[in-house]
Amino acid sequence: MHNxxxxxxxxxxxxxxxxxxxxxxxxxxxxxxxGEVETKTVQTQLFLRHLNYTVTHSAFYRExxxxxxxxxxxxxxxxxxxxxxxxRKQDLSDTGQLLCVDPREIVDVxxxxxTSGATPTIIPLTSxxxxxxxxxxxxxxxxSGVDETDTLLVCAALxxxxxxxxxxxxxxxxxxxxxxxxGAGSASQHWEMIKFTHATAIVGVPSLIHKIGQYALDNQExxxxxxxxxxxxIGEPTKDENLTLLPIARELERMWNANIYSTYASSEIxxxxxxxxxxxxxxxxxxxxxxxxxxxxxxxxxxxxxGEVVVxxxxxxxxxxxRFKTGDISYLIPEKCSCGRTTKRLAPIVGRxxxxxxxxxxxxxxxxxxxxxxxxxxxYNGYIEVMKNDDQTDRIILYAALTRDxxxxxxxxxxxxxxxxVVPEIRIITRETADKKVFQFNKKRKRMTFFDLR
Length: 454
Ligand SMILES: [Zn+2]
What we know:
Blueprint: E1 7-8, E2 13-14, H1 21-24, H2 36-57, H3 59-68, H4 95-98, E3 106-111, E4 122-126, H5 127-143, E5 151-154, H6 163-174, E6 178-180, H7 187-197, E7 201-204, H8 206-218, E8 230-233, H9 247-256, E9 259-266, E10 271-274, E11 282-283, E12 289-294, E13 307-313, E14 324-330, E15 332-333, E16 345-346, E17 351-352, E18 357-359, E19 362-364, H10 366-374, E20 379-388, E21 394-402, H11 411-420, E22 425-428, H12 431-438, E23 450-452
Helix pairs in contact: 2-3, 5-6, 7-8, 8-9, 10-11
The site of zinc ion has 6 residues, from loops.
């Protein structure tokens, strides 16, 4: 059923169109500094090759497009991408139909992390996909100023089929940095490892990086005087939609006396949008993706306007996707960056599309409500519950645990009104109750602060 791939040395491409291999092999410079025309020409070529490869090899897309009456011969330009339907997360359940290679060509199986009890998705990778992943992370790390003189502490699981840990490891190796696979260890293990290896940068979830620093402080040591100079934050946002550091990120920079770099990535899109040293949004990667920002009806929104991030990850050979709906809301920053890169930047993710709350004509995301409070020492921990009122509007309840027992939390109303123009119902709970609820699914990784009962 599948033709063997052949490398066309004359044209420097694979015969099946498995494309970005020449970028992985550095036969092209990444498009970060290229002009608009060159970027568009190369990206169009890569996109058309990706589309052709996917429709030729994926039973899922071939059948879907046939049913929809889509002939890809009519897709000749990047803008024609809008003629293709959007791929949703739930479309990825049948890996067999999506797989584009002989199963023997799969060398690694990744699983998406299943938050809130959802079934994880299988992402099978070929060796070419692993090379793509390494290339992706090599460029991303280099963008945030990591080089071969750095020692990188990777505090993300390299096992349990997670993609992030292996991606950072492969990318760092490619960059010739020294890699410390600290993995899913405890705060004390990570701290000892930093001292032992003189690590200069940490890759990890912000709340974990905070725990490591706190462990040091609790043991009369100061993370600000450690060898760590860079914090590469994965998995959780570190900035609000105006690119202002969230309280936890500010606290981390102070605690470690280090710069924090925000990243955005997901297993399905197998790409990292990482901040450069100017630290104002994640640069797009035109040789690895086509990124679109779409409104509720699937139409593109102008740069600067918020919408759903839709990504076509180019060059994937195992389970390639076309126009994948990430469910994340953000916007594009078109202005040229001070670093000299010509690519647009992706602003911080403001929230998940399905978590969007409607409050008296205002839309707001639960994490925006919580981040207003998290910067205040009086706030200990909390979560948000939302349900439908009888009139179908959203009823938002904030469960807040406060640092002092005698605090009734009246100050929170003014804070919320001023910052997000939303004042939910507020219920004060004990610190123990809050911790129990927020960490119930996952003791080490992400906190669970939003419960949708709509
Ligand atoms: Zn930049």
